[in-house]
C-alpha cells in the first residue's frame, strides 16, 4: 500500500518480465480510491497521475539528487478501456487525472486523523481546486506506477473505483455489501478488455 510498496513490487515484476523475455506487455493497476466530485461507485481510468501540487510528475530522491519523472499514461489504452466500459451500463466510467499522495490523512485533506493542521474550509478549497484541474480521484500508487512503466517502455493503465466523494465526507459510509460490489467493478471492466485482447490474438 502506497508508493514505497508498489515501487518494490514493480522492480521485482519488471525484472521477471525481462528475464522471461516477455514483449508487448500491458500492465493495469486496479484498486480503490476516493472520488473528487463524482458519485461513489464510479470507475476512473487515469490519463495522468499528478502530485499534491497537481503537477504531472513523480519526484524521487536518488542518492542526493531529486529526479523528476513524467507520469503520463497510455492515452490509447485509456480510450480502449473506456470503450470497453460501454458494455457495462450498470456504473459510470470516466477518464480523468488521479492525484497520488504519500499519506492517507493530512496528505489527502482528511480531518479525521490523529493530527490535522487545517480547517474544513481549507480542505474543501483544496479539493475543489483539484477538481477544477481535472482530478477525479485520489490514491497512493499511481505516480510511481506511471513513472516506472513509462521509463521501462511498458503500456500501462490505472483503473480505480471510488468508494466515496471526498467533497462530501472523509469516512466511507456505504454498507459492506455495496463496497464489495464496488470493488468488483474494475475487475469486470478489465475482464472485458482481456477477452477482447484474447480474441484479437486468437480470432478463432
From TrEMBL:
Gene Ontology BP term (one): nucleotide catabolic process
Gene3D superfamilies: Nucleoside phosphorylase domain (3.40.50.1580)
Domain of life: Eukaryota
GO terms for MF: uridine phosphorylase activity
GO cellular component: cytosol
Record-linked SUPFAM superfamilies: Purine and uridine phosphorylases (SSF53167)
Family, per entry: Belongs to the PNP/UDP phosphorylase family.
Protein name as it appears in the record: Uridine phosphorylase 2 isoform X8
Native species: Phascolarctos cinereus (Koala)
Gene symbol of the encoding locus: UPP2
Amino acid at each position: 500500500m502506497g508508493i514505497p510498496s508498489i515501487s518494490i513490487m514493480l522492480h521485482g515484476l519488471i525484472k521477471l518480465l525481462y528475464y522471461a523475455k516477455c514483449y508487448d506487455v500491458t500492465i493495469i493497476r486496479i484498486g480503490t480510491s476516493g472520488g473528487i466530485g463524482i458519485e461513489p461507485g464510479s470507475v476512473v481510468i487515469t490519463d495522468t497521475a499528478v502530485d499534491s501540487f497537481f503537477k504531472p510528475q513523480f519526484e524521487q530522491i536518488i542518492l542526493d539528487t531529486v529526479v523528476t519523472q513524467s507520469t503520463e499514461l497510455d492515452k490509447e489504452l485509456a480510450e480502449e478501456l473506456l470503450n470497453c466500459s460501454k458494455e457495462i451500463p450498470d456504473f459510470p466510467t470516466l477518464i480523468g487525472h488521479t492525484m497520488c499522495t504519500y499519506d492517507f490523512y493530512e496528505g489527502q485533506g482528511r480531518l479525521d486523523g490523529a493530527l490535522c493542521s487545517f480547517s474544513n474550509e481549507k480542505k474543501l478549497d483544496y479539493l475543489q481546486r483539484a477538481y477544477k484541474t481535472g482530478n477525479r480521484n485520489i490514491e497512493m500508487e499511481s505516480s510511481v506506477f506511471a513513472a516506472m512503466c513509462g521509463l521501462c517502455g511498458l503500456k500501462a493503465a490505472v483503473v480505480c473505483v471510488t468508494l466515496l466523494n471526498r467533497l462530501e465526507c472523509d469516512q466511507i459510509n456505504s454498507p459492506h455489501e455495496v463496497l464489495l460490489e464496488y470493488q468488483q467493478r474494475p475487475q469486470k471492466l478489465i475482464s472485458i478488455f482481456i477477452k477482447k485482447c484474447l480474441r484479437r490474438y486468437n480470432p478463432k
